[in-house]
Amino acid sequence: xxxxxxxxxxxxxxxxxxxxxxxxxxxxxxxxxxxxxxxxxxxxxxxxxxxxxxxxxxxxxxxxxxxxxxxxxxxxxxxxxxxxxxxxxxxxxxxxxxxxxxxxxxxxxxxxxxxxxxxxxxxxxxxxxxxxxxxxxxxxxxxxxxxxxxxxxxx
Length: 155
Hints:
A hairpin with a 5-residue loop joins strand 7 (94-104) and strand 8 (110-130). This protein is mainly beta. Helix content is 7%, strand content 58%. The longest helix is centred in the first third of the chain and has 11 residues, at 31-41.
């Protein structure tokens, strides 16, 4: 069996497999910005992203529909990334990674929400499952929500 080539970026390493990639993000690096760099370097049009790992600083967001406000809060402590799930698409021609995460604290309580950004503390392992098309999001129907715009999808 042949060993696949390792693809390397400044903050990540990856291996391609049939249907996607396995990606490690280096200790001390940022999750979202590293995944953006990886996806752009590999010219990925859209993808499903899942991952686990550890962080010592994470900024989470929450959209309050009643107030129509997006709030953010940063947590600075050692936490396990119990689950990270999201997708990669494009908003106004710019790559957009939409990811939610559950972070577990040392007392086994957790934080969860939209992942704005997090710094890796130790390890981060992600699967990036690619699609054979480029997906766009727009907020033309509801100005508060970015949803898939299938009329713009490029196959």
